[in-house]
Amino acid sequence: MVKIVRNKCKILIPEDCMVGSSFTSDGISKDLNTIDDNDIILDIGPKTIANIKQTINQSKTVLWNGPAGYF
After folding, report:
1. In whole angstroms, what is the distance from residue 31 CA to residue 17 CA?
2. Residue 21 contacts residue 27 (beta carbons within 8 Å)
3. DSSP reduced 3-state for 32
4. Which residues, including other chains, have CB under 8 Å from residue 60's CB and lie 6 or more apart?
5. What are phi and psi of 58, to 5 degrees?
6. Would you place residue 14 in the very low, low, confident or very high pLDDT band (cuts 50, 70, 90)?
7. What is the rounded CA–CA span in Å between residue 61 and residue 65?
8. Which alpha helices (DSSP H) does the chain contain, by range?
9. Per-residue pLDDT tens for 16-33?
10. What's the chain's Rg over C-alpha atoms?
């Protein structure tokens, strides 16, 4: 934990996502607290993408684990 604090490591949690009614539907952007039970999360949303871009631009090292959306 000390290395995490010392190296200013950060885990990014999505703020918004693209949702649809099926895996083939066009997605719409929703904040996480407005997702309905019947929504299928397809990808991260535009706010989250902007946050990731900003973080990457300020980083020396990036560790990524898996895709951000449906594949």
Report:
1. 6
2. no
3. helix
4. none
5. -100, 0
6. very high
7. 13
8. 2-6, 46-57
9. 999 999 998 889 999 999
10. 15
